Amino acid sequence: MSERRTISYSPFARIEGDLRIELDIVEQVVESARAAGTLYRGFEQLLRGRDACDGMVLTPRICGQCSLSHSAAAAAALHSLAPEEIPPNAYLTRNVAMGIELVISGITHFYMSFAPDLLAASPDDPDLLRFGVPGGSSFRASMIARRKMLPLLGILAGKWPNSLFLQPGGSTRSLDSSEISRSLGLLLELADFFESQVLGDSLGSWLALKREADLLAWLDAAAHASSDLGVFAAAALRRGLDRIGRWQASFISSGGWSTAAKGHWLEPGFHDGARHPLELDKIEECIAHSWFDAQDDCLHPSRGRTQPEAGRAEAYSWSKAPRYGSRPAEAGSLARMICDGDPLISDVLAKRGASVYTRMLARLHEMVRVVHQLGHWLRRIDPDEPFYRPIELPDSGEGAGIVEAPRGTLGHWIRIAQGKIRDYQIIPPTTWNCSPRDAADLPGPVEQALRDTPVADADKPLGVSHVVKSFDPCMYCTVH
Amino acid sequence: MQAVGCGGETQSLLNADQPDLLSSLRILDIDWLWHRYLQECCGDPAGLLERCASGELELDVLVVEGAVSTGSQAGLVDRSLERPLGEWIERLAAVAGYAVAVGTCASFGGVLASGRNPSGVTGLQFDGARPGGLLGAAYRSQHGLPVINVPGCPAHPDWMVGTLFALISDGLALRDLDRYHRPRVFYSKLAHHGCPRNEYYEFGSSAEEFSQQGCLFENLGCKGTQCESDCNERLWMGRTGSCPRGGFPCLSCTSPHFPDGFAPFFETQKIGDIPTSLPLDVPKAWYVGINGLSKLACPERLRRNAVSFKRVGPGAGGQSSEEGDERAPDDLL
Question: Model ipTM?
Fold first, then answer.
């Protein structure tokens, strides 16, 4: 009989917010895992009864890192209550700002949260010294890149976190031609970082890679192998990160970055080996293992309830468990790339599964795609056309705003009556990813992905850390 | 310590620029004992906090972001450590040289304490504008100061770095703090100062809807004339932006009354044409008189542009104010 022991890590280091990871370990391998949100803040409760538009101010404060995404979802939810279309410039400026938020988030995650663990795992590997915090050359370069993005975002959003420039009627900030040219120049400075530091190659050459074989050949070139992505890929494959963090993944993506009322830059979908159209009706949130009062176990968010019940037996998380057609689903860059049918990432997924390596590669790849796309959106902004159109909100109604936050699909569902919020339900991406078990005892994606992870040293479970961080959890969002 | 918050102060600190964060840390010359986001995997956070609380590790400065749950909810809404966060913060504050609350939640309760305050939180030494909070009005740190509040939603990176620098160089005394224990050096101006819309403000020339260039005070809920901060002079995001520069109203997020005291957020409460909340130290009668006069004196250029999303000239049939007057050329937009 092998010994089984249970270890927990709380708060899990170097991720956003309060995550407890509890592991049952048998023979130095994770047998089962529980991911728990340990903080409750009650945004859904404190929104009830407030003015219809108050979510615009309060929901961005859910998360210090993706406040613009909450802002966009809140604005879209209100916009969905009104018939008026908003101007093309409104979509374009929103995409630019959300794209920068995605890149800031992705860079910060890779260089501050994920990559330092590669060095911690092989402290004597001279190639990996670049990822040391705070002294590593790549880490320092990433901090400079982050600084370069601030003015690019600042011109549009005024400040960040917690800009309010995205409104139901569009953008509060109109740009003139000089601000567009200035933004394009700043964007080039950001692209330089990706080309010289991340890729060792041009964005265009990277984006020409369509299969894993192309990628492996690309990695052979010296300039590519010595880039941050090259060093990451080599270290990840050497450490077997393509064999941990895997699960029988289903993916959810709302596509996102539309440039008009209809049409997406990335295709939305639900993917379980094959892509299906995304049907929002199939989303439910379950609370069998969450600290909430359970009259109904699973509810569509438009009928959702949030009534804390801190002492509930069987519960272990302040996170609800979102399900799509009763199944857990992974949200994030990998999900977006798979639902969009991105050839490179789809091929890597087919070869390596939904592993730590695949997930991280998808995030880096998506950032390159976004940086490349930002210029197109910026150039399409027409400074002579409006950025905003006032919209008339009805007194009563219900609507939803679904956007792609850096970490994945983010939904806000709102019901208003007599100009006040009756109900407000939010499902952020990490609620999908760090979901606890549901009534059928089906674990969430991170919980499933942690299974079979080796834990040689319980004081320094770097494999576990790689798996958890590959999802880039944001527990602030999760436990809104 | 990150309590009941959103991590926004940490993100804002990472936005430090001119100087950047790494240089700022060098100026401060500090050893980080613990920060959950900057900590390596996986450690023993409770053990480390215990060593600080017991005095084994000297704690010069305790910095908290996020509000703190007290009373019956403590330890239920925050379960990341085995004991409630409020208990840890009380013990650490008792031994700390200085205690600093960064962000409006840690300072006053802020967004997390708004409405029905579902997680039962308060600020470290204030509950809204009322002294008290978690530590009580009488609390003084080892160096004899109350909790130093660095509010803002989020706080500007300069405010955080500058406050720490003042503390570490013994440059902060009670007289340097205002009535809400905010360092005067950052909070004794108005967000209004330096606003690029000030010319519109002076002539009562106001935007009627978002994206227009006029002043946001009269119609769109801007509280910049009441907000004690230096946002529009200091500027955010690599010194490029501020709330009104982004086209949306200042909501006075450095105030202990934020957010509920400033609702409705996007419209200006008025009696007749007069906003109910006037610029902080302008007498009402004077405001009404001067505002009426300045509206009469408003140049056509401002009247036109206040309600336009882009700069517009007089267009066809437009005339300069006085024929042949070179002081008001047609091409001034």
Answer: 0.96
